[in-house]
């Protein structure tokens, strides 16, 4: 039975659970449940602290898990990254009071607060900077105002939290993070199926189906606008001069592509969400 670690709370838990449900697995019904066995799919879910997931998977106690790349790298676990899951995207950055620091070299001798002290120590060592990291569990942005640190290193999405505390990021991002699937390195039974299913969810979320009608004379032009994964499906219409076309396009480009198709002669352009997919 494939053993899968899932975040039990925090920023990753809801989307991770939603993805697994979309992939056809049975999740927990109550947020207090620590384990769930999905007999039909031959998998067992373990609901764990996101920060601990890399430790369990790296030790081989569990086969795979969902966590953040930043948490995984900070853990020092020997697990391996198997797949990007496309949510909880953020960067991990140094930040300090507005105007105070401009490069890592300015951190020499400073105290740097973070929940990710291994990542901080590695970044400082790589830059040849001697500084002290101060481990905090969260709300790291408050530490400078409160006088326990001179700078911070933290997760930045919109940058709003930093700004509200009078801080600004400086230097290059330490890393780009997102939710990922990690594995113990063993090709456990059921792992290929899980990966295929998660891939299906990602494709379903990322693409939409476009249907349109077009005169045969304009078909080549509309196919140039949107050529699909392999090649568009072209079906005859009752009027022999016209055809119906179906093609997958990236949902983020839907409107731009619809405009270009209309310009190229497409009519009755319809958009449909994809519920699930195997590509
Ligand atoms: N605002 C955010 N945008 C994108 N990703 C985020 C954000 N905040 C946290 N993350 C990501 O979520 C993961 C952290 O998970 P964690 O469970 O610690 O979230 P949390 O909401 O900060 O929980 P906690 O309440 O324990 O601090 C990391 O991978 C981090 O990059
Ligand atoms: O750049 P932003 O869009 O402001 O998002 C980044 C913030 O979101 C997370 O905080 P969270 O709410 O998880 O609190 P925490 O610091 O206690 O973990 C993260 O730790 C940052 O503080
Ligand atoms: Mg947090």
Record the SSE blueprint:
Elements: E1 2-7, H1 13-22, E2 35-38, E3 43-48, H2 50-59, E4 64-68, H3 69-75, E5 80-84, E6 90-97, E7 111-114, H4 117-127, E8 132-135, E9 151-156, H5 160-164, E10 167-177, E11 179-183, H6 191-206, E12 207-215, H7 219-225, E13 233-236, E14 242-250, H8 254-263, E15 267-273
Parallel strand pairs: 1-3, 1-4, 7-8, 7-9
Antiparallel strand pairs: 2-3, 4-11, 5-11, 6-9, 6-10, 12-14, 12-15, 13-14
This protein binds adenosine-5'-triphosphate, 1-O-pyrophosphono-5-O-phosphono-alpha-D-ribofuranose (PRP) and magnesium ion (MG).
Number of extended strands? 15
Helix and strand pattern: EHEEHEHEEEHEEHEEHEHEEHE
CATH topology of the largest domain: D-Maltodextrin-Binding Protein, domain 2
Main CATH class of the largest domain:
Alpha Beta
Helix content: 25-40%
Poorly predicted runs of 5 or more residues: none
Q: Tell me the Rg in angstroms.
A: 24 Å
The proportion of residues in beta strands is: 25-35%
Query: In what order do the strands lie side by side in the largest sheet?
Result: 2-3-1-4-11-5
* Average residue-wise pLDDT: 97
| Small-molecule binders | adenosine-5'-triphosphate, 1-O-pyrophosphono-5-O-phosphono-alpha-D-ribofuranose, magnesium ion
C-alpha termini separation: 25 Å
Q: How would you sum up this structure, described in words?
A:
The two termini are 25 Å apart. The protein folds into three domains: 2-88 and 178-189, D-Maltodextrin-Binding Protein, domain 2 (3-Layer(aba) Sandwich); 90-171, Periplasmic binding protein-like II (D-Maltodextrin-Binding Protein, domain 2); 207-273, Alpha-Beta Plaits (2-Layer Sandwich). The chain has helices at 13-22, 50-59, 69-75, 117-127, 160-164, 191-206, 219-225, 254-263, and strands spanning 2-7, 35-38, 43-48, 64-68, 80-84, 90-97, 111-114, 132-135, 151-156, 167-177, 179-183, 207-215, 233-236, 242-250, 267-273. The protein is globular and about 75 Å long. The strands form three sheets. A six-stranded mixed sheet has the order 2-3-1-4-11-5, sandwiched between helices. A hairpin with a 5-residue loop joins β13 and β14 (242-250). The chain is an alpha/beta fold. The mean pLDDT is 97. The protein binds adenosine-5'-triphosphate, 1-O-pyrophosphono-5-O-phosphono-alpha-D-ribofuranose and magnesium ion (MG). 1-O-pyrophosphono-5-O-phosphono-alpha-D-ribofuranose (PRP) binds at residues 11, 138-141, 154-161. Adenosine-5'-triphosphate (ATP) binds at residues 10-12, 50, 68, 70-71, 88, 90, 138, 155, 157, 177.
């Amino acid at each position: 039975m494939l053993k899968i670690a899932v975040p039990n709370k925090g920023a990753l838990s809801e989307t991770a659970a939603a993805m697994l449900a979309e992939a056809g697995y049975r999740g927990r019904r109550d947020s207090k449940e620590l384990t769930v066995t999905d007999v039909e799919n031959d998998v067992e879910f373990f609901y764990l602290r996101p920060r601990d997931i890399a430790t369990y998977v790296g030790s081989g106690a569990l086969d795979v898990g969902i966590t953040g790349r930043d948490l995984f790298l900070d853990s020092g676990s020997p697990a391996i990254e198997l797949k990007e899951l496309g949510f909880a995207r953020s960067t991990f950055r140094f930040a300090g009071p507005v105007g105070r620091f401009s490069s890592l070299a300015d951190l020499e001798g400073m105290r740097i607060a973070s929940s990710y002290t291994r990542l901080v120590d590695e970044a400082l060592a790589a830059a040849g900077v001697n500084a002290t990291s101060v481990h905090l569990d969260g709300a790291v942005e408050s530490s400078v105002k409160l006088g326990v640190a001179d700078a911070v290193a933290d997760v930045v999405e919109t940058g709003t939290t930093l700004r509200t505390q009078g801080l600004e990021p400086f230097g290059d991002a330490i890393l780009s993070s997102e939710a990922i699937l990690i594995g113990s390195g063993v090709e456990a039974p059921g792992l290929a199926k899980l990966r295929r299913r998660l891939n299906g969810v990602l494709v379903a979320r990322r693409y939409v189906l476009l249907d349109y009608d077009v005169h045969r004379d304009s078909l080549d032009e509309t196919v140039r606008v949107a050529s699909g994964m392999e090649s568009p499906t072209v079906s005859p219409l009752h009027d022999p001069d016209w055809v119906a076309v179906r093609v997958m396009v990236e949902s983020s480009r839907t409107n731009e592509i619809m405009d270009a198709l209309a310009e190229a002669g497409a009519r009755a352009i319809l958009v449909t969400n994809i519920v699930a997919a195997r590509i």
